Amino acid sequence: MKYIIDHDLHNHSLVSPCSRDSRQSKEAILAYALTNNYSLIGLSDHLWPDTRDQIWSYLEDLPQSNRCRFLKGAEVEMHMSGDVVIYDNELEKVDYYILALTHVHLLGYVTDPAKAPLSVEATAQYVKERIYKALSMDLPFERVGLAHITWIPQPAGHHITECLALFSDQEWEDIFGKIANLGMGVELNLRPLDYSPEQLPQVLRPYQIAKKMGCKFYLGGDAHHPEDFTQNRVEKFQAVIDLLDLTEDDKWEFVKQNRI
Ligand SMILES: [Zn+2]
Ligand SMILES: [Zn+2]
Question: How many angstroms is it from 18 CA to the middle of ligand 1?
Answer without folding.
Answer: 10
